[in-house]
Design a protein that fits this description.
68% helix; elongated; mainly alpha
Length: 252
């Protein structure tokens, strides 16, 4: 412990001079400031991708259970199989290098948008599988009751089925919300200045790789545990006793 260089975070990134208070002014910055900026990129990518995944995954998961809509069901199944079975890193490269060549307007998209799309669609396939499992775990009587009341398909999904399905899939949704912070590390492959890229570059510049690594891990843990606490709080508030779906298969 005595040989560990914790003061590396207070060093200026230009000349490695120590900065009082660990926060430089003007255009200078310390490694601590750089790490916090990288954390901001990680959080931004993760939360944006999570929002996209929840919206798209909810739509795909719903259409996979629609009655009398075989083409929509096939589309939903194909979406899940496509995005679930291609490794995330491969999808990142496809979005960054291949799709802009096939679709020229995408060349103007910033890397941030492309990474969010790749991570969001990848996660959406997992959320879609979980929502499908949650909907199928509900008693058939709930669907029939909605139909008996004269509700349209859209109405009984909105007012009867989906509210219950979301309640019973909250545990796997919590896991996916935590995983998305871990998976955001692949953004370094397309030069997003997030925590993993910071660790690789700052560790090489300072030769204090262990200290930098510990700092980065602490921020990842804080991020994951914060989203865990938020999702757990929501789960407790909306939980229906006795209704917990066996949706673990959707997360693998």
């Amino acid at each position: 412990m005595a040989n560990w260089r914790w003061d590396v975070f207070c060093q200026n990134t230009i000349d490695n001079e120590l900065v009082a208070g660990c926060f430089a002014s003007g255009r200078d910055q310390t490694y601590l400031q750089w790490m916090l900026q990288a954390w901001g990129w990680t959080v931004s990518v993760s939360l944006s991708a999570l929002a996209l995944a929840l919206v798209v995954g909810s739509v795909i998961g719903t259409v996979r259970t629609l009655p009398n809509s075989p083409w929509l069901v096939r589309f939903g199944n194909a979406w899940v199989e496509l995005f679930r079975n291609i490794p995330l890193l491969v999808q990142i490269f496809l979005w960054y290098f291949v799709l802009p060549k096939l679709i020229p307007p995408m060349k103007s998209f910033p890397p941030f948008i492309l990474v969010v799309c790749a991570l969001g669609f990848f996660t959406s396939s997992r959320i879609a599988e979980q929502l499908r499992s949650g909907l199928q775990a509900l008693p058939r009587g709930q669907r029939y009751a909605g139909m008996a009341l004269g509700l349209t398909t859209a109405q009984y999904y909105r007012y009867v089925l989906l509210p219950m399905a979301y309640r019973i899939i909250m545990p796997p949704l919590t896991s996916e919300s935590m995983n998305i912070f871990k998976n955001s590390a692949v953004a370094f492959a397309v030069s997003i200045p997030e925590l993993t890229q910071f660790y690789l570059q700052a560790g090489e510049e300072t030769s204090a790789q262990i200290e930098i690594y510990i700092g980065v891990v602490v921020l990842y843990v804080i991020s994951a545990m914060t989203i865990n606490r938020i999702m757990t709080f929501i789960e407790r508030k909306i939980r229906v006793p006795g209704l917990v779906a066996a949706t673990g298969s959707g997360g693998h």
